[in-house]
Design brief:
Layout: E1 4-7, H1 17-26, E2 31-33, H2 42-52, E3 55-60, H3 80-97, E4 101-103, H4 115-135, E5 141-144, H5 160-170, E6 175-180, H6 181-187, H7 191-198, E7 204-209, H8 225-239, E8 245-247, H9 259-262
Parallel strand pairs: 1-2, 1-8, 2-3, 3-4, 4-5, 5-6, 6-7, 7-8
Helix pairs in contact: 1-2, 3-4, 7-8
Length: 276
């Protein structure tokens, strides 16, 4: 049975962020993820996790000036110092929250910069981040995620094969791929085949889901998730993959009271016990 983590940046929008931990636990989630935790003290987040028997399994490194349209710093030349500062901050949060994964956003391809030049910056930054995470002892894995160009025009990394080529080229065990099936379907399709191809490689650190095309609940749209969950179970049993599936979608009912909870009919009732 897949293990689902509630994305608290998108689910339960009717609640204050810290109250979303309580709601997720009440709905049967045993793990959570979020985009950016930095507006909150790490100890306050840790207290919510412990009070609800939840695990923090993923969050993003600082993305640069998000409100100004930036979507990560890893491929941006001239921003290396800021990138490194953000990684160190993320590692501090990962330690405090006992979080095993940090998503490092590639960023938007700068105007006038060739893709080869951007990739060279990207690789150098990921190597530095990998070493920094390794120095943190049992540090977290760093994840890179292909994102579709409709939701995020100009994003440097769009395809699964490109992400896996980057990870192979780096050749370090703590940089992996965050495989979001929503983005994968929009850019490439053939999702079940890609699960079968990439999960056994050991390079997939995390999965995420949402309905396509509107990014609502997984029972909405063109992807048949019950089938895909069976595929994930089958392949995971064969290769030993034991990751989480992040529920990164916008509830159909938006911020209506209990809108997220009432939309969880898609989620298999049997979830692993806390701590599994």
């Amino acid at each position: 049975m897949p293990r689902f983590a509630a994305n608290l940046s998108m689910l339960y929008p009717e609640l204050d962020f810290l109250d979303r931990f309580d709601a997720a636990a009440e709905d049967g989630f045993r793990a959570v993820e979020c985009q950016f935790p930095y507006a909150f003290d790490a100890h306050a987040l840790q207290a919510r996790l412990r009070a609800n028997g939840l695990r923090q399994v993923l969050f993003n490194a600082p993305p640069g000036r998000w409100d100004a349209g930036e979507r990560g710093l890893a491929c941006l030349p001239g921003r290396e110092a800021e990138f490194r500062e953000g990684i160190l901050r993320a590692l501090d949060y990962a330690t405090a929250l006992d979080c095993p994964r940090i998503h490092v956003m590639a960023g938007l391809l700068p105007p006038g910069l060739g893709r080869d030049a951007a990739e060279a910056v990207y690789l150098d930054n990921l190597r530095w981040a990998s070493e920094a995470a390794g120095r943190a002892g049992r540090g977290p894995d760093l994840l890179i995620e292909p994102i579709n160009a409709r939701d995020m025009p100009g994003f440097f990394l769009n395809r699964q094969d490109h992400a896996h080529a980057i990870v192979e080229r780096l050749g370090v065990p703590n940089v992996k791929v965050q495989m979001d099936l929503y983005h994968c379907q929009i850019v490439e399709g053939d999702v079940a085949t890609k699960i079968r191809r990439y999960l056994p490689t050991g390079r997939v650190g995390h999965l995420q889901i949402a309905g396509v095309p509107d990014r609502h609940e997984p029972d909405d749209g063109e992807l048949r998730y019950p089938y895909l969950f069976d595929v994930i179970d089958e392949v995971a049993a064969q290769c030993g993959w034991d990751g989480w599936i992040g529920c990164e979608y916008r509830p159909r009912r938006g911020a209506a009271p209990r809108g997220t909870t009432e939309g969880l009919g898609w989620m298999p009732a049997a979830q692993p016990p806390a701590g599994a």
